[in-house]
């Protein structure tokens, strides 16, 4: 049996190149921008009362108002969830005995909005509610967004282009693809997704007064980055 250059009959492809078939390793990178697909907001509802029951009653009422308002936007809201909830006593600062001055209640609600035309009005109406704080929006792409695939494919194309340029500089050609992998895919644990590019602001509801006009929110474009390692075999270079 005849062995081809750069290969071993017993072990298959060598882990390194040869003079006849040098191995070429490159990294392809891509950085693309896309319009956001969703926006997340966090709504914190607060209540106070001289006793626990009064605080709970006020908190329940305001929580229901917030949920009803958000649900009123129908399909524009893709996800709605209740997060942390707490009711805690606030003690007096003076005196030897522990006395409860008031009870503070708080509940946090998160909403994911896919229709940005309704987002400005929604955040304004929420912020106009009594003892209600609105944080966000945090702009993002969906986890299954085609943008991620497009960035990865662009990184692969960049790797091939770079490898061809290196080979051409030596009057050689690419012969075969040996390996294509994410950086650290073989040795490192899966990396966490990058933090969302976000712009956040807090709005507190006013206890009274005329309703404010809808906020004009400008969606922030999202940057998607991808990297890939590629190894090729190239023809014998001319030196």
UniProtKB/TrEMBL annotation:
Protein name (database record): SIMPL domain-containing protein
PANTHER family listed in its UniProt record: SLR1258 PROTEIN
Gene Ontology biological process terms from the UniProt entry: DNA damage response
Taxonomy of the source species: Bacteria, Bacillati, Actinomycetota, Actinomycetes, Kitasatosporales
UniProt cross-references to InterPro entries, sorted A to Z: 26kDa_periplasmic_antigen, SIMPL/DUF541
Pfam families, per database record: SIMPL
Region annotation (Disordered) ranges: 1-21, 183-222
